[in-house]
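#structure-requests
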Amino acid sequence: MSLRLKVSLATSAALSVFACAGVAQGQAFYLQEQSARAAGRAFSGEAADTGAQSLWWNPAAIGGLDQGDAAIAAAAILPKGKVVDNGTLIRRPGQPAAAIGGQSVSRDPINNGVLPSGAIAYPLTDRVSIGLAVTSPYSFTTDYDADSWARYSADKTKLRTIDIQPSIGIALTDWLRVGGAVNVEYTDASLGNALPNLSAALPDGAQKLKGDGWDLGWTAGVQMHNDFITVGIAYKSRIQHNLKGSLEVSGLVGPLAAQNRTIDGATAQFYTPAQTIVGARLRATDALTLNAQVVRYNWSKFDAIRLGAPINQALPENYRDSWSLAGGVDYAVSPALTLRAGVQHANTPTQDGRRDARVPDSDRWNYGAGATFNVTSRFSIDAAGNYVDFKNAPIDRITAAYAGTAAQTPILTNGRLEDAHAFIASLGGRFRF
């Protein structure tokens, strides 16, 4: 196998893994748990709410603040599910197709995790406020067993991002707020997967890729409001990500042994999607507020992973644009206690026939409930719980190790994501100063 092909295969695996985060509870590789208040109503009115907790969704949320506002939160994510082999075959050179072997059921391959977030905003005048949100929108760890049937497309993976969003919000009039922000995003990833040797009697080889990079995007939004209703519209730009790192290949024997090496300087470029967010909050009574939100994700921009020199290839991903739709309520039981509930539906950008074990994403329903308790006039506690139910989906993307060489080894994937769900517990605090 040529150096060009080997780096191509490994880098493709590294980037397509980002979508695996979708099994936790977001959409593809987007995690939305950036506020405990928002989680309680299933993210149904964030573009139209006010204060630092809504900065991620709409920087106009801080326009016209009359005091400082800060919030911190953490979401414990507990995913469950099975990735099941239904007859995956491997065809080594000069040999008939054979069963992939290994464990036929991989249970709970995505690890439990804690997702932190925080935001702060402060008024400069009675109309202008500045703010800062720090979030981790794409973060997870997945760990398949070394003998899993999915080992040739996924083994051990760790992904961490930090998004730093300085923002400004302005109340242009008594009914119109506008805002803008820059998104400075750091991404760090490491992953591995097995490589088949030319004989099934030999142990597998392995490859591990590590990479990181800093990239920029932007967010802009407006909010229109009166005494009864607020409508918020925001746009989060796509971000062009550029990763640079190293690739290590080991354990190959026989004719493939010459490919065992460490390669520095592997690079790749891909896009995370733009989001168009429309939210509304209607004060139905003094106690009851109705919320709704729809998000359009421009996932079709993630059409390929473009590899830099010396590879200079484009690897197709073929994601499609997708939507999420949510509705919820806030009910003020007393001046000290507000209860929340909501439901959200999202369809996956991954497509049947192009889904692999590293990207076991599917359509899902998110059910949320939560509460806010005002401990004092300046400090409150938010808590929420969510249950996310994923639709069963096929895992059926055909791949090939050592593609384009005499050692080409097709993997005829035939699997399924089954019984996938997640529990999320969120806790946060809000401070006014």
